[in-house]
Amino acid sequence: MVKTYIFTGLTCLTLSAPALGETLSSACLNDTDALKMECATSNVDLYIGPQSVLPGKPLYIAVETLTANGASSNAKFVTVKNEQNGEQYTLDVIHGLAVMDLSAPVRRGRMTYTAYLGDIASAPVEILIGSGDLTPFTLRRRMTGDGMTLRTNELTDSFGNLIEGGHIATLTIETDQGIRKSRQLKIVSGQIFTHVKCAELGPNDVRLVVSAATQSQSIPLYSSTCPKRFLS
Asked: In this predicted structure, what is the pLDDT of residue 130?
């Protein structure tokens, strides 16, 4: 027998029954007294997906309880524990399998889960909680000798998580007709920082815009901003 579990539309787990066939498994599921020792759980396998998830999004958990011979055991329930925050969930076991859906933690970072049945523990499973949707940010300008620096506040999601470094933002130099020039920026330590030289600006440029995900902020360019750009 092959059992397949579908997580978020993708086949991420396939389990095969042992060569013993169904005889021992059926006896175990019926809790036959004569086979209690053979039916006892000796191994617990934990599966969690997806392994990378956004805060508050669904996590799918499956736990299989097995005998020493690899058949489904007679376990009645198992406990799944988040080793970071201590949260525990008790799952009913049916035919050697326990399944559960829950929401991912809202704090960004790595989380480790372990399934327990008495003193039997599964191998730990690690998942990565990423950042959620970017919230509105502020953009500040400071003039320098040859141009200006632009810096945002710390970028966070709706749960207060700092946006990870390495994400991409965009700087655009715009006229009244639209974008004249653009370049990519990186988010470093939760902030966007860049330097714009006066030599990059033209006489018709009216604003600088920094965009990341669905959020953006602009800085107006006045006639007093880099006045040499108006000289022919």
From this structure: 92
Give how far the C-alpha of residue 8 lies from the chain's centroid of Cα atoms, to the nearest Å: 14
Protein fold of 139-230: Immunoglobulin-like (2.60.40)
Encode burial over 185-207: b for 16+ CB neighbours within 10 A, e otherwise. Answer: bebeebbbebebebebbeeebee
Total length of the chain: 232
Taking alpha carbons only, the member of 75, 67, 119 closest to residue 95 is 75
Question: Which amino acid is located at 21 in the chain?
Answer: G
Q: Is the peptide bond before 50 cis (omega within 30 degrees of 0)?
A: yes
pTM: 0.70
pLDDT in tens, 44-84: 999 999 999 999 999 999 999 988 887 888 889 999 999 99
Is residue 63 packed enough to be buried (19+ CB in 10 Å), middle (13-18) or exposed (0-12)? buried
Q: What is the 3-state secondary structure (H, E, C) of 93-160?
A: CECCEEEEEEECCCCCEEEEEEEEECCEECCCEEEEECCCCECCCCEEEEEECCEEEEEECCCEECCC
Task: Tokens for 216, please give them.
Answer: 């953006």
Q: What residue spans define the domains of the chain? A: 2-129, 139-230
- CATH number for the segment(s) 2-129: 2.60.40.1930
Q: What is the mean pLDDT of the chain?
A: 84
Q: How do beta strands 52-53 and 125-129 pair?
A: parallel
